[in-house]
Amino acid sequence: MKKIQISPSILSADFSQLGNEIKRLENGGADMIHVDVMDGHFVPNLTIGPPVIKALKKNSSIPFDVHLMISPVHKYIESYANAGADIITIHPEATDDLLSSINKIKKLKKKVGISLNPETKVEVIEEFLDQIDLILIMSVNPGFGGQKFMPEVLDKVKKLDKIRKNFKLHFDIEIDGGINFENSKLAIKSGVNILVSGTTIFKNNNGDIKKNIDLLRSI
């Protein structure tokens, strides 16, 4: 089984203290930093762009796991790669040519992530699985933090984990949306090895980030 990694979402951080918040996450044992990029078009919200990511990257020694909820995404991939994204995750629905976008990310020497919304089927990306480093399963509809976890998406996780084992593939399975201490265990048992969490990490146990990360990581 792959090591369980924690990718805290800075969507739940104090935006007036983002540099310090990232240091707190590193000191608390985070494996990477999850950055949600929203364009107000593909999803109904706006967040941060390349200049902010570039500035924040200077404060971090761990990878930036950048989830692009923007459309059309292809023309923006290079900007986020140059800003410091280590993993670039895109949605199949946000590009006219998924293979071309995958190849662009690879050419920029970044890890390729593909995100599946709750209603998006595994079959959409099945032919590309040997070229993908990470699959992000959305367990809420993307666009806002603090939503309720949708347990039905774990069927997709199980399917992907079975494919990964049967074909000896090496992609990570990440999950994002309403992750807490209870459903994280269900996700891990289904085959997830990277947990994205915002509210649980920043708010639980009086904001004890290390304790919350350790609790999420334990099965």
Layout of helices and strands:
Elements: E1 5-8, H1 18-27, E2 33-38, H2 50-57, E3 64-69, H3 77-83, E4 87-90, H4 98-107, E5 111-116, E6 134-138, H5 154-166, E7 172-176, H6 183-190, E8 194-197, H7 199-203, H8 209-217
Parallel strand pairs: 1-8, 2-3, 3-4, 4-5, 5-6, 6-7, 7-8
Helix pairs in contact: 2-3
Kindly summarize this structure in a few lines.
The chain is an alpha/beta fold. The chain has helices at 18-27, 50-57, 77-83, 98-107, 154-166, 183-190, 199-203, 209-217, and strands at 5-8, 33-38, 64-69, 87-90, 111-116, 134-138, 172-176, 194-197.
Summarize the structure in words.
The protein has 219 residues and is α/β, with parallel strands linked by helices. The protein has a single domain, classed as TIM Barrel (Alpha-Beta Barrel), CATH 3.20.20.70. Helices cover 32% and strands 18% of the residues. It has 8 helices and 8 strands; from the N terminus they run E-H-E-H-E-H-E-H-E-E-H-E-H-E-H-H. It has helices spanning 18-27, 50-57, 77-83, 98-107, 154-166, 183-190, 199-203, 209-217; strands spanning 5-8, 33-38, 64-69, 87-90, 111-116, 134-138, 172-176, 194-197. The chain has an 8-stranded parallel β-sheet with strand order 1-8-7-6-5-4-3-2. Helix 3 links the parallel strand 3 and strand 4. The chain is globular, with a radius of gyration of 16 Å. The two termini are 12 Å apart.
